[in-house]
């Protein structure tokens, strides 16, 4: 699992945000500013922000708001990845191509580390991006399938709160399930 | 895991979301997950979890081979003709019922319904016999190791023919049906339904028609019980069995005129008689002359059908 060295800087983030060469770019597009919990500012096109049900309802409640939308539960790195994903999904909405979309989603997921995936889930959940959440849940399930207990704990960063005796007793009960798991 | 960032951690996620993820795992990994931490067994045994799991594409089937129940994970492999990946994982149900024989009546959403017959004495004893007074029905979740026993009160004038097990879509309740002949000359066929949680058998009256043989799998989970006699009314001669595939009621019929062939009919629209469609005709079945019924279990994406042969659940 690659350690995270690719944390995007603000400048790269904002430059990425004007996707080319659609004719639509001729129109001025409204931008929405999001602020992560670690005080990074993300300027995204309105169409992208509207993919986030949470942000959408924020603007439905206060339509004239021009404020920065604070996202207190979301840190910059997973947020930037979520934005990246949603930008692509919007293109597929405009030009539906299931095969291409599948391919993109698969690539998007494969190149992410375990930690990236796990960190994006709470963000997708908080922002209520159903499609992404679904894709992430499946990706995570695929990565822990047939893995050992220790592997799963490590994967999610969960502490073992069983005593050694309790764990041993449970293992005896269903010994077969712990045989033949993948080498971690 | 990084602690310096202030974001929501996976452990802060609502239970429902964690269930979402876990419900996508095959049973074997789930067993493993019971050990991850103390909250996870609660997640997995939550009724909501079962609901989520049921909504997933069907990948695990339980198979009964003699007195053992195996859990089989079915995986489709694109390159391989052999789609069945059989993991030798078995539930030792026999241990729970010492001195008993069990028969699988049916399974639904991971629950097994068993007919338990208690024997007096050991098989080697000369006085050995199966005692009808000790018949009972057990509904169990072998995965959670939970068992509910339902007594069957033996009555002289009753002759139990078949038991069935299903789940009502409307009430989400699990029900067991028993069909029995009633009266001296086995004149009437009656049915009683036991809804789990109510604690009693409720009569649903006489079953229509004359039936000479009832199908043990004559049960659907689509909200009501169906039995083979419905089809018998339609004057189909031959062997019929019913099942539910992809949410549709279906039946497979092999006719006496051509025992080497059987057809699978699917009721596309529930309750609409006209929607019965002859979906498949399977030829050259190496058929046993008597009780070899074949029931589709899963339609695989490549057009193949996984079929239930004798002895499988």
Word description of this protein:
The complex is a heterodimer of chains A (184) and B (313). With 184 residues, chain A is mainly alpha-helical. Chain A is 53% helix and 8% strand. Chain A is built from nine helices and three strands. Chain B has two domains: 14-56; 57-310, no CATH class. In chain B, the strands form five sheets. Chain B has a four-stranded antiparallel sheet, with no helix packed on it. In chain B, a hairpin with an 8-residue loop joins strand 14 and strand 15 (276-282). Chain B is elongated. Chain A: Part of a SCF (SKP1-cullin-F-box) protein ligase complex. Chain A: Pathway: Protein modification; protein ubiquitination. Chain A: Residues 30-88 form the SKP1 component POZ domain. Chain A: Residues 1-32 are annotated as: Disordered.
Q: Could you tell me which chain pair has the largest interface and how many residues each side has?
A: A-B, 46 and 34 residues
Helical fraction of chain B: 10-25%
Alpha plus pi helix count of chain A: 9
Q: What portion of the residues of chain B fall into strands of 2 or more residues?
A: 35-45%
CATH class of the largest domain in chain A: Alpha Beta
How far do the termini of chain B sit from each other? Answer: 44 Å
What percent strand of chain A? 5-15%
Low-confidence stretches of chain B: 1-5, 76-88, 208-248, 254-259, 283-313
**Fraction of residues in helix of chain A:** 40-55%
What's the CATH superfamily of the largest domain in chain A, by name?
Answer: Potassium Channel Kv1.1, Chain A
Count of individual beta strands of chain B: 17
Tally the structural domains of chain A.
2
**Pairing-aware structural class of the strands and helices of chain B?**
mainly beta
Global outline of chain A: elongated
- Average pLDDT of chain A, to the nearest integer? 80
- In the CATH hierarchy, the third-tier topology of the largest domain in chain A is known as Potassium Channel Kv1.1, Chain A
Distance N terminus to C terminus of chain A? 12 Å
Order of helices and strands of chain A: HEEHHEHHHHHH
Compute the number of structural domains of chain B. 2
The order of strands across the largest sheet of chain B is: 4-5-6-7
Number of helical runs of chain B? 6
């Amino acid at each position: 699992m690659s350690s995270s060295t690719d944390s995007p800087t603000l400048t790269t983030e904002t430059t990425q945000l004007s996707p080319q060469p659609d004719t639509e770019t001729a129109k001025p597009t409204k931008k929405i500013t999001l602020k992560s919990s670690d005080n990074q500012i993300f300027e995204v096109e309105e169409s992208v922000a509207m993919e986030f049900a949470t942000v959408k309802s924020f603007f439905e409640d206060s339509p004239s708001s021009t404020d920065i939308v604070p996202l207190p539960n979301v840190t910059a790195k997973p947020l930037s990845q979520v934005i990246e994903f949603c930008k692509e999904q919007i293109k597929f909405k405009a030009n539906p191509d299931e095969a291409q979309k599948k391919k993109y989603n698969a690539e998007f997921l494969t190149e992410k580390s375990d930690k990236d995936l796990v960190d994006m889930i709470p963000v997708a959940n908080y922002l209520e991006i159903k499609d992404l959440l679904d894709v992430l849940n499946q990706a995570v399930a695929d990565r822990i399938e047939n893995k050992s207990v220790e592997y799963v704990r490590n994967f999610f960063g969960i502490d073992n709160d069983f005593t050694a005796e309790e764990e041993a007793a449970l293992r005896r009960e269903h010994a077969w399930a712990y045989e033949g798991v993948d080498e971690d | 895991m990084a602690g310096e960032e202030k974001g929501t951690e996976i452990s802060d996620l609502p239970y429902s979301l964690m269930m979402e993820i876990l419900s996508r795992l095959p049973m074997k990994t789930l067993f493993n997950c019971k050990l991850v931490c103390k909250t996870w067994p609660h997640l997995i045994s939550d009724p909501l979890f079962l609901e989520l799991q049921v909504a997933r594409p069907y990948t695990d089937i339980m198979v009964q081979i003699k007195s053992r129940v195996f859990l089989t994970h079915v995986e489709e492999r694109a390159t391989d003709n052999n789609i069945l990946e059989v993991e030798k994982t078995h539930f030792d149900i026999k241990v729970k019922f010492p001195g008993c024989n069990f028969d699988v009546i049916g399974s639904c959403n991971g629950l097994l319904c068993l007919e338990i017959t208690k024997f007096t004495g050991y098989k080697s004893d000369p006085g050995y016999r199966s005692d009808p007074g000790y018949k009972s029905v057990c509904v169990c979740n072998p995965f959670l190791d939970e068992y509910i026993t339902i007594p069957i009160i033996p009555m002289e004038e009753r002759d139990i023919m078949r038991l069935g097990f299903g789940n009502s879509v409307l009430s989400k309740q699990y029900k067991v049906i028993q069909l029995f002949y009633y009266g001296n000359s086995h004149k009437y066929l009656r049915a009683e339904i036991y809804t789990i949680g109510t604690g009693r058998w409720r009569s649903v009256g006489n079953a229509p028609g004359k039936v000479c043989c009832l199908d043990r799998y004559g049960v659907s989970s689509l909200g009501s019980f169906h039995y083979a006699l419905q089809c018998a009314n339609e004057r189909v001669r031959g062997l019929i069995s019913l099942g539910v595939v992809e949410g549709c009621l279906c039946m497979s019929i092999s006719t006496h005129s051509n025992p080497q062939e059987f057809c699978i009919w699917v009721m596309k629209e529930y309750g609409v008689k006209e929607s019965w469609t002859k979906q498949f005709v399977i030829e050259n079945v190496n058929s046993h002359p008597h009780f070899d019924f074949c029931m589709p279990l899963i339609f695989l994406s490549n057009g193949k059908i996984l079929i239930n042969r004798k002895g499988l659940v």
